[in-house]
Design goal:
This protein has 364 residues and is an alpha/beta fold. The chain has 2 domains: 134 residues, Aspartate Aminotransferase, domain 1 (Alpha-Beta Complex), CATH 3.90.1150; 207 residues, Aspartate Aminotransferase, domain 2, CATH 3.40.640.10. The protein contains 13 helices and 12 strands. A 7-stranded mixed beta sheet has the order 2-8-7-6-5-3-4, sandwiched between helices. A 5-stranded mixed beta sheet has the order 1-11-12-10-9, covered by helices on one side. Strand 3, helix 6 and strand 4 form a beta-alpha-beta unit. Helix 5 crosses helix 6 and helix 5 packs across helix 9. The structure holds pyridoxal-5'-phosphate. Pyridoxal-5'-phosphate (PLP) binds next to helix 5.
């Protein structure tokens, strides 16, 4: 029998999301009745960008590999982020960014610190590389326990991962906390900013003065391009040099590169989408707060975490799913007991969810 590495045998794999057609089939729904409020993606389809792609499609040289340096997109990203193009690496989504970082810095015998609960792929990618994950629980209000994190550092600690805004809790890592960690820890500090556009707070400003910082971002959330798979890493020269030894030469398609470049020409549209989502997030938060038996947590992302106080989250999750509303059930995690996470969608979808939830909570 083929025999995988020990790290793979020991791995608790990432829980893959059920596809919409399967949910529709299971609950006897039409596929268009299924609303994904569990993936933290955008409800807006970038139709114009797709049209402009379709016009240029026949000129795209799919018989050739992409420009492996991804220079065009890196230059556009440099304009957007104010980070020099040579300090930016384009990746196949933020997940590949996390993988490249782990491949570069993690191996058996090394440790990775996570502030939990957080995005689960950070653990998976670290463990695939044979690293030992040290989970430092967040405080009851979900803020990062920076004292605890620094106390957990050992000589073999390779990476401290932060996620800001944190998935699934929605809160930010305050800049002074990050600065303290960057100064007291000599290894790599990674900040996953997948939801950056919804809050506008970034660690990227600290890059010029901190050689042990890497910032990860994605086009999957605010930019409406989850299916195109484009992400990027920003880091200083030394870290970038190491990451470049590891990154695969051609992990992005010419189609995805073209879509991301088009997206960066339409920042004002993205700003408008972000504004709408943020307004909706605040409205949904207020409406949830007004419901008996629901405790929503404030969020800086495009999602909200809520704890159900008098109903079983698992049951409510199933009942919503039967009606085509798919939320993320997090209640098996002891720190997120009886919690569900919902992605902010269009006003119509959000209202549909609020109505259903209200009905279920009052048992009508
Ligand atoms: C915090 C965080 N990082 C990374 C990702 C993955 O992003 P991508 O689609 O770019 O791989 C997600 C997706 O949900 C996320 O929540």
């Amino acid at each position: 029998m083929p025999y995988p590495r020990d790290a793979v045998l020991a791995l608790e794999p990432y829980a893959w999301e059920t596809p919409s057609w399967q949910i529709a089939r299971q609950y006897g729904l039409r596929p268009e009745e299924v609303v994904r409020m569990d993936l933290n993606t955008s409800p807006y389809t970038p139709v114009r960008w797709l049209r402009s792609l379709s016009r240029t499609l026949t000129g795209i040289r799919v018989n050739e590999y992409p420009d492996t340096s991804y220079t065009h997109l890196r230059e556009k990203l440099s304009e957007y982020t104010n980070v020099p193009a040579q300090d930016i690496m384009v990746t196949n989504g933020a997940d590949e960014a996390i993988e490249i970082i782990c491949k570069t810095y993690v191996e058996r015998g090394r440790e990775v610190i996570l502030s939990t609960p957080t995005y689960s792929y950070l653990r998976v990618a670290s463990e695939i590389m044979g690293g030992r994950v040290v989970a430092v629980p967040r405080r009851p209000d979900f803020s990062d326990d920076v004292d605890g994190i620094l106390a957990a550092v050992k000589p073999n600690t390779s990476i401290i991962f932060f996620c800001s805004p944190n998935n699934p809790t929605g809160n930010l890592l305050p800049a002074p906390s990050l600065k303290r960690v960057l100064e007291e820890f000599r290894g790599l500090v990674v900040v996953d900013e997948a939801y950056y556009e919804y809050c506008g707070q970034t660690a990227a400003d600290l890059l010029p003065n901190h050689r042990n910082l890497a910032v990860v971002r994605t086009f999957s959330k605010a930019w409406s391009l989850a299916g195109a798979r484009v992400g990027y890493i920003m880091a200083g020269e030394e870290v970038m040099e190491q990451l470049n030894r590891v990154r695969p030469p051609n992990s992005l398609s010419v189609i995805s590169l073209s879509l991301a470049a088009t997206a960066l020409d339409h920042k004002t549209v993205v700003k408008m989408w972000v504004r709408k989502i943020v307004e909706e997030r605040e409205r949904v938060f207020r409406e949830l707060k007004a419901l008996d038996g629901v405790e929503p947590y404030p969020s800086e992302g495009n999602f909200l975490l809520m704890r159900l106080q008098s109903h079983d989250a698992e049951k409510i999750h199933t009942e919503l799913m039967r009606r085509g509303l798919v939320l993320r059930n997090l209640s098996s995690n002891p720190q997120l007991r009886n919690c569900l996470r919902l992605t902010i969608s269009t006003r119509r979808n959000n209202d549909r969810l609020l109505r259903r939830l209200r009905d279920l909570l009052t048992d009508r």
